[in-house]
Design goal:
Blueprint lengths: L1 E6 L15 H10 L2 E12 L4 E10 L9 E16 L2 E16 L2 E16 L2
Antiparallel strand pairs: 1-2, 2-3, 3-4, 4-5, 5-6
Length: about 120
C-alpha cells in the first residue's frame, strides 16, 4: 500500500530572467487547485515456481478546489500474471481506468481498457 499527497495549488510559474510577471497566473493556480492524494494498493501471489498472479487498485483524488464546482477523480483496477522459466519471462496485465468528471450540472464518466504483454530474456 502506498499513499501520495500532492499540493497542486502550490505550483508556481516563474521566469529566470524576470521578463514576465506571473503573479496573476500563480494566483489563479492557487485558487483553482488544491491538495489531492493517490492511493495505491497491490499484491502478488506466487502460485508455483513459475507462475505469479498480481492485482492492484489506484484511486486518484480530484485536484480542483470544491468551490469551483468541478470534481475529477479516477480509479484504476488491474490484474495480471507472470511466468518465469530459466532466462525467459512473460508478463501480462489488464487494466480498467475509470474517470468521473463533473462540472456543475454536466457529468461524464470515461473508461479505458488496456491490455499489456511483455516478453523478456535475461542474458
Amino acid at each position: 500500500m502506498d499513499y501520495e499527497l500532492t499540493d497542486y495549488g502550490s505550483a508556481k510559474y516563474y521566469s529566470e530572467e524576470d521578463f514576465e510577471d506571473f503573479s496573476g497566473v500563480n494566483t489563479e493556480v492557487e485558487n483553482t487547485y488544491k491538495m489531492a492524494g493517490v492511493l495505491k494498493v497491490g499484491a502478488e501471489i506466487r502460485l508455483n515456481k513459475k507462475f505469479f498472479w498480481r492485482a492492484g487498485y489506484n484511486h486518484f483524488g480530484s485536484p480542483y478546489n470544491k468551490d469551483l464546482g468541478v470534481e475529477q477523480s479516477a480509479s484504476l483496477y488491474a490484474t495480471g500474471f507472470g511466468f518465469r522459466h530459466r532466462s525467459f519471462c512473460l508478463d501480462g496485465s489488464y487494466q480498467v481506468y475509470s474517470q468521473k468528471l463533473e462540472i456543475g450540472a454536466y457529468a461524464k464518466n470515461m473508461k479505458a481498457n488496456t491490455l499489456k504483454i511483455t516478453l523478456g530474456y535475461k542474458f
